[in-house]
Description:
Structural class: alpha/beta
Shape: globular
Distance between the termini: 31 Å
CATH class: Alpha Beta
CATH topology: TIM Barrel
CATH superfamily: NADP-dependent oxidoreductase domain
Strand order of the largest sheet: 3-4-5-6-7-8-9-10
Amino acid sequence: MEYKMLYNGTKVPVIGLGTWQIGGRNEADSSRDRENVAAIKGAIRLGYTLIDTAEMYGAGHTEELVGEAITGHDRSKLFIVSKVMSRNLAYDDLLRSAKGSLDRLKTGYFDLYLIHGPNPSIPIAETMRAMDYLVANGLARFIGVSNFSVAELEEAQKHTRNPIAANQVQYSLMVRNESTYGPYRNMESETIPYCQRHSILVMADRPLHKGVLLQDANPVLDELAAKYHKTKAQVAINWLISKEGIITIPMSMSEAHLRENLGAAGWKLEKEDMQKLDNAKFSDVGR
């Protein structure tokens, strides 16, 4: 596995396991629990040590599945990320959410705890005071945000004693500057360059745009897959992790796809091929 560094030199795998829709979407779905836990355990055996989840996923059930899957593993070798919903950013609500997530994950601390999205109706100073409490009391090693603009990042940083370690955003060859799941803009043109300048790790979610990116033929992606003897998915993920300060968290429960995604690391696209992909246009069917 390759790694990128947080601001203090802590290593984070460049490819992690996303868990959105495992165990439900906005409501819990227990119909495939045994299969889902086995898949997460299998991912860990393959080398996935970064696992990203959230209290929103499956109304908390996804965290329960992750908690069951990581039981018995050396906790120090895992990097567990969870997120607090934007409606729970008041001081007491955030601490309650964090405790609930830790209970479901069956762990004493988060490696990284993120604000899932900004909420202008709750003072960010109150939110960051709660995040500082988590760090001060050993409940979170690092804190960060998700879907924050440059202005929101700057405002959040003003109100915390701890550096913002990461910003999770939707970013892929298909989605560059306008999110498909919220009013989030300027990821590639503004937010990511800001994060790179300030040592804030960028966690790119939906790197394959839920598979849509791979459905249609694209001359550049097809050409590079053939040139490097890689799959289109591996080229698309490598494009992300070859960029400064960017890691990614594709979701898959298929062992074949999990192995394939790991094969995106350990090699690099040449500079001119990175530029080809930077300049290529990908359709947004299925948006």
